Automatic annotation (TrEMBL):
InterPro entries: MT_TRM10-typ, MT_TRM10-typ_sf, tRNA_m1G_MeTrfase_euk. This is tRNA (guanine(9)-N1)-methyltransferase. Keywords: Methyltransferase, S-adenosyl-L-methionine, Transferase. Its EC number is 2.1.1.221. CDD domains: SPOUT_Trm10-like (cd18089).
Length: 270
């Protein structure tokens, strides 16, 4: 500041003008990056709805070896509309996994009658899904993995995930509940005697509302972290800007937002 005050009036104006230009350039760059992220999210939504055919998997795509499970054992706790939303979110998960540079083994477990019937209604799309990107199972994840290999992801857990262990299978609760069922997935994990944890959202970004995300957003965050090994990048690339607090890390000025969620219904990082 002392050196700045020693400058002439014209020199100070030049310095201030340069600083303003740099701030605006950085904001413009971040705005463009967010617009590209929004376009990618909307494109994935159109693929999931069957409006366009998915692009081919990346030529350098590899199997990451990570196991992600969506626990669908909640049919009795969802309305028909919520089940429809949940199935749409699974479509988004498939689309994201298919286009990932490092795809995971995605398991949909304990698929009950209502959800299964919904997928049957989508048979023309569902039957075309490649098995290396998604697998449907009538059985529960406890019948597929050892207990000590399971980690249930729930926002209510006091534990925090620091990294993703390829030797573990991470479980996401497949439920759209509008927060009717408090501590549902945490209690389930505790009753089953399996580990549980939440994503480290608060360590990297600040959300304007409670840490509530759709299942496909949680899945895409996990995919992005596997690709980048960077939680902040994963959160910022996936979570819509409108859910981030202003002036918080990762927040930029809002761009035109045509709804990046698969539904207005949300699921608590189950």
């Amino acid at each position: 500041m002392e050196e700045f005050n020693k400058l002439s009036r014209n020199q100070r104006k030049k310095v201030m003008h340069q600083e303003k230009w740099e701030r605006e350039a950085a904001a413009f760059k971040e705005k463009k990056q967010e617009q590209r992220r929004e376009r990618r999210r909307r494109h994935n939504q159109r693929i999931a709805r069957g409006e366009i055919k998915p692009s081919r998997p990346p030529p350098n795509q590899i199997r990451s070896g990570h196991q992600i499970v969506v626990d669908m054992d909640f049919d009795d706790k969802m309305s028909e509309r919520e089940i429809k939303s949940m199935c749409a979110q699974l479509s988004h998960c498939y689309s994201a996994n298919r286009c990932a540079t490092q795809h995971v083994d995605l398991h949909i477990t304990k698929l009950h009658e209502k959800s299964s019937s919904r997928f049957t209604a989508l048979k023309s799309v569902h039957t075309m899904w490649a098995k290396q990107y998604i697998g449907f199972h009538d059985k529960e994840y406890l019948d597929m993995f050892d207990k000590d290999k399971l980690v249930y992801l729930t926002a209510d857990s006091p534990n925090v995930v620091e990294h993703l262990d390829p030797e573990k299978a991470y479980v996401v609760g497949g439920i759209v509940d509008r927060n009717r069922y408090k501590l549902l997935t945490l209690k389930k994990a505790e009753e089953q005697g399996i580990a549980h944890a939440q994503l480290p959202i608060g360590q990297y970004i600040q959300m304007a509302t409670r840490k509530v995300m759709t299942v496909n957003q949680i899945f895409e965050i996990l995919l992005r972290f596997i690709e980048t090994n960077d939680w902040k990048t994963a959160f910022v690339d996936v979570i819509p800007q409108r859910k981030l607090k202003e002036n918080a890390p990762g927040h930029t000025e809002p761009t035109e937002d045509n709804n990046t969620d698969s539904s207005s219904n949300t699921s608590d990082e189950n």
